[in-house]
Predict the structure.
Amino acid sequence: MQRALTDLSNDAIDALVSECGGKPFQARQVLHWLWKHGADSFEQMRNVPTALRAALAREHVVRHATINKVDDAEDGTQKLLLRLRDNETVECVIIPDEERTTLCISTQVGCPVACVFCASGMFGVRRNLTAGEIAEQVLLAQSQLRPNRRLTNLVVMGMGEPMLNLDGLLPALARIHDADGIGMGARRITVSTSGFPRQMERFAAADPSYNLAVSLHAGDDELRKRLVPTATSPVRDIIAAAHRYFGQKGREVTYEVVLLEGVNDRPDDAVSLVNALGSLPCTVNLIPWNPVEEIVAQKGLRRPSVVRIDSFADSLRGGGLKVTVRRQRGADRSAACGQLRLRALDAASS
Ligand code: SF4
């Protein structure tokens, strides 16, 4: 299979252009077309000589992915199903909110973590995305933005566990962040993990100060193991790694808690979280679960009522924690992570 330019570092593109007989300034032009103009074919690179374009096209394509389907929700959320060159599919979601437009991207096809409430984890992981496939989600989303909108923030919270694909993620973020790439500030980029302390150390060693979010879901090990069965590190080790990240990068850590009625939204669950996080500099983001039909049917999980959510948030605040509650977005169309892909898999197998 031909490689995509999006999988190459800037230095590799310099070398490729030179091998094809081009000059360094033409490598800059190719990079500009790729990342600034979002060109998806060599033909679009109009100021690059035809012979050089033809030489580049002999062993390379520009991108891997195409948009297979766009689901528009009434609140403006747009969910994109992307088809990769081996016919696998992944999702990314554009979430407009007043002045801000956030894109949520995926790092793996499926996910090995198997959180009990998540559609992406239902069938395990099929493969890691390449750096190009991760970065291309930003380019494809940009092509779908409504007039006068631009992407202001990026969250790596879609399908997959980012810490289990650092070889794809770190170069992808470099291309998204780099001034010669897409040029998005590191502080506008948040990476969310379900908690892999060793990999979090490696992520911390990467240069720019990305934001870190940790999907904690529970403050005690036993309950956490029920919710995130494959992430076996103790809660205290995960929190310690996150706070070393804070110490190194000076970026406050966000802890996410997907709230499930009667499972992790009880008064004792709030006490466990307060005990685990204590007086650490952090924010707890409560995410009321977005029900997934298949998971409701199999496991009987439920989204808590507004009263229960408010009471849980108040208990955390009473324990000294800073708390935000995420409001539901895109509720009318396959809103939960992995749901659009689940529908596509269903359709393909029926
Ligand atoms: S919530 Fe995230 S980590 Fe858990 S299974 Fe889904 S995609 Fe994987």
Observations:
- The mean pLDDT is 91.
- Residues 111, 113-115, 118, 120-121, 159-161, 194, 337 surround iron/sulfur cluster (CB under 6 Å).
- The chain has twelve helices and 14 strands.
